[in-house]
Design brief:
Number of domains: 1
Distance between the termini: 15 Å
Number of helices: 2
Order of helices and strands: EEEEEHHE
Shape: elongated
Radius of gyration: 19 Å
Length: 96
């Protein structure tokens, strides 16, 4: 069975412009929490498999990481070109 060795998740979504207001003894105050809603259909995971990683020499491993990073960053940049659809993008590296 082939497994993932490393992945980069790219998630984008909408953070609503309104802020939650709480009633406090000092009067209405922002709650400090704004719910960001990820758009699941825009989420992408870019993966290096264990087989790809184990079969690569040190130079090839560097190229695999650069390629993975480039694809994820390009996709994140593409998403940021649509500010009317999403207003935040998160790129997260995951090692298994």
């Amino acid at each position: 069975m082939e497994t993932a060795r490393c992945a980069v998740d790219v998630v984008a979504g909408v953070m609503p412009p309104e802020v939650q207001i709480e009633d406090t003894p000092d009067g209405p105050q922002p709650s400090g929490w704004v719910k960001a809603r990820p758009e699941e259909e825009l989420t992408r995971r870019f993966v290096i498999t264990s087989k790809e990683w184990n079969d690569a020499d040190d130079k090839e491993k560097g190229n695999l990481l650069m390629d993975l990073s480039g694809k994820a960053t390009a996709y994140g940049a593409y998403l940021m070109q649509s500010p009317n659809r999403v207003n935040w993008v998160k790129i997260e590296w995951i090692w298994f």
